[in-house]
Automatic annotation (TrEMBL):
Major facilitator superfamily (MFS) profile domain: residues covered: 37-503
Protein name: Monocarboxylate transporter 14
Transmembrane segment boundaries: 33-55, 75-96, 103-121, 127-148, 160-180, 192-210, 322-344, 359-377, 389-409, 415-436, 448-467, 479-497
UniProt membrane topology term: Multi-pass membrane protein
Keywords of this entry: Membrane, Transmembrane, Transmembrane helix
Subcellular location: Membrane
Organism of origin: Eudyptula minor (Little blue penguin)
Primary localization class, coarse: membrane
GO molecular function terms listed in the Swiss-Prot or TrEMBL record: monocarboxylic acid transmembrane transporter activity
Gene Ontology CC entries for this record: membrane
Pfam families: MFS_1
Length: 516
């Protein structure tokens, strides 16, 4: 196991220059404007994830309006939730080119447009395009920047900050469910979606709050992180770091050459513009358009180069075996959390517990404790003597144990206890960005976390139908829990095996050198 969360991290470049001279930390890192970023991310989680958790209200309205099968109608909400996460890698490209602020503002407009256009739906297939795709892509363009910005602004208290911001999902589930239920009752579902679209425009305000850090601030943040880290077991992943640096696609030289070429293009345009002051106003206007187009081309090329090298270059994220194991884990993890929400109503009905469940629903227990779990696990992970990686693994072990034992519970009290443990242990979701940043560094957080949430999106999209298919074959909900729990355990085993392999490789290499 790792001694601290810095021990499992490595960067893709050589930051020896950045760490050679002490730089005064920016007051906005771990304080100041950083808390406005947390507020912005908190509101994003309310408006996006909270709204998606409340889509059951609209799903009933769509069933009554369009008279389609439950399976077909359910794909509307599944598409919206799945696409929000699956588009993560492509949103990373937008962030590389435009930055988090512009990406989030554009996403807010697109999300609101999806809600408003859905108010005029004439059939379910229309909703696939407007709500599933349009609103889903817009949600993804806001969600990823909201997570990335918190990671950039916090170093010492990253886990707590991520925990506080992601609690917006739990609060949003309660608020948006009550709001949509009220709007549908008073104004009908079409007007309710139109109003919700107007409310979603507040995502643009949240995006405007995502003030980017200057390059000096990023360097300062790296220095603070390095000065506070412990190097007890940093050699565990040194082999992967050496591989990345030796391949060198993300090294500084190609970037410098590209920047030099781009500056030459811009300088030539500016020279033409200065030399042409005596020309007509129309020619000057054309030169200004050419200059703007050249600057835009430079930005797009630079952003695409970073995005492409992160995924497909010799120094891509996939050369980090621990990160690849993390992706495999993500493919199985999210569906295991969703399945209890699907089958708990049937469990309650089978054991004749509806009266007790109506007083305090089991799903509500999961949702409420989930909020506290995110904050408490974040506080624990930020303690100096505690490793975020170890907390993350322990929470996963607790969750998979609960998933496997839940079908064995037959009383309301025992089910409530297991559901509370599921809610608390699933609070590790707030640690996912922290672990990702520890693995790849702040510079590559957007692209790396985009891959992770994409894997979660695939899990969320295919997990519930898979569970339903198992139930249709076996006519028992137990097998859905057992199979999903075993797959989840496979993902956890990958997380345990890969760090051990990474730790052994440098030792084997040194032994061979000694023999030579």
């Amino acid at each position: 196991m790792y001694a601290s969360r810095e021990d499992i991290g490595y960067d893709f470049g050589d930051d020896s220059k950045a760490g050679s001279k002490p730089i005064k930390p920016n007051p906005n890192i771990d304080g100041g404007w950083a808390w406005m970023i947390v507020l912005s991310s908190f509101l994003v989680h309310i408006l996006i994830m909270g709204s998606q958790m409340a889509l059951g209200i609209l799903n009933m309205e769509w069933l009554e309006e369009f008279n389609q099968s439950r399976g077909l109608t359910a794909w509307v909400s599944s598409l919206s939730m799945g696409i929000t996460l699956i588009v993560g890698p492509f949103i990373g490209l937008f962030i590389s080119m435009c930055g988090c602020r512009k990406t989030a503002i554009i996403g807010g407009i697109l999300n609101a447009l999806g809600w408003i256009l859905s108010a005029y739906a004439s059939n379910v297939h229309y909703l696939f395009l407007t709500f599933g795709v349009t609103a889903g892509v817009g949600s993804g363009m806001v969600y990823l920047p909201a997570v990335v910005m918190v990671g950039q602004y916090f170093q010492k208290r990253r886990a707590l900050a991520q925990g506080l911001s992601t609690t917006g999902t739990g609060f949003g589930a309660f608020l948006m469910t009550a709001l949509l239920k009220y709007l549908c009752t008073e104004f009908g579902w079409r007007n309710a979606m139109f109003i919700q679209g107007a409310i979603s425009l507040n995502l643009c305000v949240c995006g405007a709050l995502m003030r980017p850090l200057s390059p000096k601030d990023v360097v300062s943040e790296k220095y603070v992180a390095r000065s506070n880290s412990e190097d007890n077991q940093a050699k565990a992943l040194s082999h992967s770091a050496e591989t990345i640096k030796s391949n060198g696609v993300l090294s500084e030289e190609p970037e410098k050459k590209e920047e030099a070429t781009n500056e030459e293009v811009l300088d030539s345009v500016q020279h033409i513009e200065i030399g042409g002051k005596s020309r007509s106003g129309r020619s000057m206007y054309g030169l200004r358009i050419l200059k703007t187009a050249s600057q835009l081309t430079v930005t797009v090329r630079k952003g695409f180069a970073i995005w492409y090298s992160s995924y497909f270059g010799a120094a891509s994220l996939f050369t980090n075996r621990v990160f690849v194991a993390f992706i495999i884990w993500a493919l199985f993890a999210y569906s295991s959390f969703v399945i209890p929400f699907i089958h708990l109503p049937e469990i309650v009905k089978q054991y004749n517990l509806p009266s007790q469940n109506n007083i305090f629903p089991l799903t509500s227990i999961i949702a409420i404790v989930h909020i506290f779990g995110k904050v408490i696990l974040g506080i624990i992970s930020d303690l100096p003597c505690i490793s975020t990686w170890n907390v993350f693994l322990m929470a996963n072990f607790t969750l998979v144990t609960c998933i496997l034992t839940l079908p064995l519970m037959q009383t309301y009290v025992s089910l409530a206890v297991v559901c509370a443990l599921i809610g608390f242990s699933s609070g590790y979701f707030s640690l996912m960005p922290v672990v990702t940043e520890d693995l790849v560094g702040t510079k590559h957080l957007a692209n790396a976390y985009g891959i992770i949430i994409c894997a979660n999106g695939i899990s969320a999209l295919l997990g519930p139908p898979f569970a339903g298919w198992i139930y249709d074959i076996t006519h028992k909900y137990d097998f859905s829990f057992y199979i999903s729990g075993l797959l989840y355990m496979v993902g956890i085993i990958f997380l345990l095996i890969q760090p051990c392999i990474q730790k052994k490789q440098p030792r084997e290499k040194s032994t061979e050198e000694a023999q030579v």
